Amino acid sequence: MLKRILFLTVFSLLIPFIASEKPLYISNDKKITIQSIIPYGENQFFDGQAPLAPSLEHLLGTDDRGRDLLVRLLYGFRNNFLYCLSLSAFICVIALLLGVGSVILSHPFKGLLVLLTESLFCLPFYFLLIAILSVVESSHGIYFTCLFFFWPPFALLVRSEASKVLTSNYILSAKAMGVTKSRILFFHLLPNCLTPLKAAFPLVFSGLFSLLAYVHYLGIASFEPQASLGELLSEAKSNITNPYLVFAPLIACLIPLSLLMPTKPSKVLFKKLQLYYLSYFERMENFFRQENRLTRFIKLPKQMSGERLRN
Amino acid sequence: MKSYLFKRLFITLSSLFIAFCISFLVLEYAPGNRQDFDRVKLLEAGVTGASTQTSPFSFSKFFNRVLQMAQGNMGESLTFHEDTKNVILKHTKTSLVYWSVSFTLTILFSFTLSYFACFRLGNFSYALLRNLCLFFYKIPPFLVALLLLYLANMILPTAWFKMEEPTQHFQLNTLLPHLWLPVVAYLTFLIPSFFLQLDTWIQEESNKEYLIALNARGFSKKSIFFRHLLPNVCPLFLSIFPLITRNLLVLSVAIEVTCQIHGFGFLGFLSFTTRDTPLLLTLFLFSCTLELTLILLTDILLRSIYFSQDRLVHA
């Protein structure tokens, strides 16, 4: 999962080198210029009746205002991805600190923190976001609303892990040995509480990615003049008969969401092919070693049932 | 159990209080607040000498607002010029129609799929089904609604998915042909989420000894599923029912905007675009109260199920 996030981050950082209006390099004597692969900018308008159909010049055509769709998609993905990545990182840090704090702090503060976490957890986040964005008209509104209100479920996760870690034997023996509280906190508690956050990070990220696309699609906020996937989806709704304007942003939204899914569908297919080519004994061995998913209700392989009857 | 109930009620009330404070501060002191609106009204009426500054915060104003809300006075909508409660009730009627259809179909399909997953599907098909459900669970429903709208434009006549006149929306006979789009969009999210949870519980339940004994005694799979598995899983299923229904409130905004259905979610979007702050904040408080009630209900149901199970075990 970390590798996929790293790959997507590197890809999004390289996008200005892939698609840029300005040349990447101009020599001193201006004889040598190196252009990017797609020599168009995010906000470069083209003449002609928008939206233009796909061609060699514009691989996915243009949007309804005459800007190259592929470049808008790349930059929209980049803006959304980096925005959500930084926000997810901050939310995880806040969830970690407040989750651990709600376990280790002394009583009145602990109680207040738990009350705050559980109260904010119950608020309808989307309606709250819409209410706040009606007042704060910028993308900063989304950022700060998410920072203040998106962390409670993950803080509760960290809190349950922290309370489990604190009662474990190695922490009790460290305390008995006289290890200071700060050392226990920074060297044992915090690193162990990172485990559920590592598992929850893709959920945080995909939730924020969907939220940002959702909010920009509705037109509640925007990155104007910069591109965003939600804005492209909104343009798709206005030009619903144009397949490129509809499918391109749809697929661009689905790619990061599906890449950050926990299971790989291809593994299932590979396993099926593997089973088909294995020998009889290997298949029997695999059959007995597989997880106990209602095995008592599944029919035994024919050869095996035949052997059982003979024996 | 009593102490748990009191604790949950206390948290619910504190959440409502936080929600009310946010709505009060936004309504009274944010740009475009009630005082600005009243000032504009006075200027339009030709009254001179109106104060141009927003009055500072005062506790008396806060408590007066609490009293007004307790008396049921949520304010007048700036767009509809009607009591906000009546506006919300009218629009919720429309949403309730397709919410109820979506829910009924979700329950039918999720139980059918879980029956097939239990007994009819091989390992490969079962794993494929689970992965498909995980994949569809991740797709935001408004993307599905957009895709369906595109396909509908290509294949179906316009009357089947385009709703132009808002007056038609509260009549059931004109609303029904247009319901398929939001219902299908909801089903792509609700069926996977219900099925995945139901399947996990069925798997846990099916490894118990009484079911193994029933199978060894020769009971048919159908009788085991319908007479033993399902009755034991249904209480758990009912307990997450309120929690998953809160997703309807969240998803309704984008789906109704895409499908042009003037329901609860569309009202929220409309109140945002027209800056109808009293309506927006009444919607926020209404959805907050509903969500808190649903979460409290879920907690109580889950707690009572596990509480009764613990008592049986210890007895």
Topology record:
The complex is a heterodimer of chains A (311) and B (315).
Chain A: H1 2-18, E1 25-26, E2 33-34, H2 69-104, H3 107-121, H4 125-133, H5 139-149, H6 152-166, H7 169-176, H8 181-218, H9 229-238, H10 243-259, H11 265-277, H12 280-289, H13 302-310
Antiparallel strand pairs in A: 1-2
Helix pairs in contact in A: 1-2, 2-3, 2-6, 2-8, 2-10, 3-6, 4-5, 6-8, 8-9, 9-10
Chain B: H1 2-29, H2 34-44, H3 59-70, H4 84-119, H5 123-138, H6 141-155, H7 172-175, H8 180-206, H9 209-216, H10 221-259, H11 264-273, H12 277-314
Global structural class of chain B: mainly alpha
Poorly predicted parts of chain A = 292-297, 303-311
What does the main sheet of chain B amount to?
none
**Hey, roughly how much beta strand do the residues of chain B contain?**
under 5%
Tertiary shape of chain A: elongated
Gross geometry of chain B? flat
The N- and C-terminal alpha carbons of chain A lie at a distance of: 49 Å
Rounded mean pLDDT of chain B is: 75
Q: How would you describe what is shown here?
A:
The complex is a heterodimer of chains A (311) and B (315). Residues 292-297 and 303-311 of chain A have low confidence and may be disordered. In chain A, 67% of the residues lie in helices and 1% in strands. Chain A is built from 13 helices and two strands; from the N terminus they run H-E-E-H-H-H-H-H-H-H-H-H-H-H-H. In chain A, strands 1-2 form a two-stranded antiparallel ribbon. Chain B is built from twelve helices and no strands. Chain B has helices spanning 2-29, 34-44, 59-70, 84-119, 123-138, 141-155, 172-175, 180-206, 209-216, 221-259, 264-273, 277-314. The relative contact order of chain B is 0.13. The chains are: A mainly alpha (311), B mainly alpha (315). Chains A and B meet through helix 3, helix 4, helix 8, helix 9 and helix 10 of A and helix 1, helix 5, helix 6, helix 10 and helix 11 of B.
